[in-house]
Structure formats: C-alpha cells, structure tokens
Specification:
By secondary structure, the chain is α+β, with helices and mostly antiparallel strands. The chain has ten helices and six strands, in the order ααααααααββββββαα. Helix content is 42%, strand content 11%. The two termini are 19 Å apart.
C-alpha cells in the first residue's frame, strides 16, 4: 500500500509527470500478452518484453516504460554474476523464527559484491539522470554515495530502516542496487521454509512493506514485498498497513477489464494495487505491472484529492 504523495518505485519524477496526464485513459488498458508464465528475479526479460509492448499499446506510458527498462537492464548485468549465499540456519530454525514473528533475512546474510553494488549505484543514477528523474547536483550526490567507503554502513542503515543522508532518491537507488542480492538470498531461504503461515503486514523475508498484491484464482490475496518481491498470504479484506478490516472504510477501484484492482483504506489513506489472476491473461510481472497500473495510481490520487 502506498502513500498518496510517494507511490512510485525508483523513478518518481518521470512517472509522476506521466501519471498526471493518464487518469482519463484508465479504460484503455489492454493486458494481453503472450508467452509462458513467469515472475521473480530470474524473469526480467519477460518484464522488458511486456514493457515494450505496453509502450506501443499506450504511448502515454512510453517514457515511464523506457525508464523502467533502463533500470531493469542495469540490474540484469549484475544478476548473471551473483554467487549463492551460504545460509547456516536449518529449516527448523527458520520455521521457528517465522512462528515467533521474526523476518528471516539479516543484512549479514546477503552476499553483496561491493564493486558491483558501486557500479549499480552509478548506472542506476545515470539512468535516472538521462530520463530527467534527478538533476545534475543530485546525481553527483548519489554517485558520491556509491564511491564512499561508508557505502556498506549506509546500505545497512537503509536495510534496517534507519535515517539515510538527505539525498533525493537515495532510498530508491539503494533499493534497485540491493534488489538482485536480496532476491538471490530470498530464493535460497524459500527453498527451506514455507511462508504459508505468515499473515503479518511486513515481509517475512526482509521486513519491508508490500507495494503490490495478487488475487489468486481461488480469491485469496498474496502481498508482494516492494523490496525483495517475496510473496505471502494475507487477509483479503484488511489493510496491509494499519490492519483496518472494516469494509465500510475500505473502497476499491478496478480497470475496465478487471485485470487490476486497487484497495483504498480510508483510515490510513493508503492503498495497494493488485493483479487479479481470475481476470488476467498472465501472472504478475512486478517491474512491468508497476508501469501498467499507473492509470490506477492517477485515478486514486484524483479520488483522494476530490475527497479532501
């Protein structure tokens, strides 16, 4: 679920500028795509193919799609070189941690290759700069974070939810730079433990907030972590931020084809989008769906403004 003024992932300026002009095109969304089911960190080419197709179908989304593709391609260049992290905890220990309400992933378990992380920070910043998502001064400050000997401490601070230096877009840049390593570690952990009993609002892996969801073919809901893309089951009605489950204070919207939905909590004024597997012709593609659902973001923001 997202705050009305901060609903974008890593490319706020460009995407927000695009989204302000597309609320009226909500009914034009066409979700059709061909190819085998795919999702997660090892399926980025599928996201790219869908983003390119989306840009052709909806030219108003082309700038945001191009930015997203640039970010994905930067991450892909590192993913092929990732090593498999060594996790000493047994399956019983991991299951016990989940049962006690403790997320599994610790910073020291993530096998960062620091030279590649620094390279990613530079490349991600350069992508943002090329698309005018950051100005030259901000890009210089972000490059400085990547070059700093304090980068490991800064990334730990980011992971553990501490206060970062006041540099615009730093949270987003660190998120993109860390994501391939987070996802690889999560893949290893998921081979050892089931997340079926975790029903909390934070990610069972990295403790971050969800930023998307999936309505399964059976009508159940899975939350999708905005940081590592792990998925876990959650109450189909309750707000995954404040826990509100009063139907009278929760409203929803959907695209005309029903492939995407959004749930808006009137208590905390936050919302979460969902891919409805009962209507969609493909599985969730986190990187592509963040762009494909920009009309929903714009419509929700317009609705919130009207209700103020």
């Amino acid at each position: 679920m997202r705050r009305p003024a901060a609903f974008l992932d890593g490319f706020a300026r460009v995407v927000f500028a695009v989204s302000r002009g597309i609320a009226s095109s909500l009914s034009l969304y066409d979700p059709s795509v061909t190819g085998p089911p795919a999702s997660g960190s090892r399926q980025l080419p599928r996201d790219i193919a869908e983003l390119k197709a989306l840009a052709e179908r909806q030219p108003e989304l082309a700038p945001a799609a191009a930015l997203q593709i640039g970010l994905i391609e930067a991450v892909r260049r590192v993913q092929g070189r990732l090593s498999t992290p060594w996790i000493e905890a047994t399956a019983d220990v991991l299951a016990s941690r989940l049962a006690g309400g403790t997320p599994l992933l610790e910073f020291d378990q993530i096998a960062f290759e620091w030279n590649d992380v620094r390279l990613l920070i530079r490349q991600i910043t350069d992508v943002l700069r090329r698309h005018d998502a950051v100005d030259a001064d901000t890009a210089g400050a972000l490059h400085g974070v990547g070059r700093s000997p304090q980068l490991p401490a800064t990334l730990r601070l980011w992971f553990e939810g501490g206060t970062l230096p006041p540099i615009d877009m730093l949270d987003e840049v660190l998120s993109w730079a860390a994501r391939p390593y987070l996802q690889r570690t999560v893949e290893v952990l998921q081979q050892r433990v089931s997340l079926d009993t975790w029903r909390r609002r934070q990610c069972p892996m990295c403790a971050a907030e969800p930023d998307f969801s999936v309505i399964t073919s059976s009508g159940e809901r899975q939350l999708v972590c905005g940081r590592c893309h792990a998925r876990w089951p959650f109450d189909p009605i309750a707000c995954p931020y404040c826990g509100n489950d009063d139907r009278k204070t929760i409203t929803s919207m959907a695209t005309s084809d029903g492939a995407y939905r959004v749930m808006i909590c009137q208590v905390c004024s936050r919302y979460i989008k969902a891919l409805d597997a009962r209507r969609s012709t493909r599985p969730l593609l986190p990187y592509a769906d963040a762009i494909a659902t920009l009309p929903l973001d714009a419509a929700v923001m317009r609705k919130i403004d009207q209700e103020k």
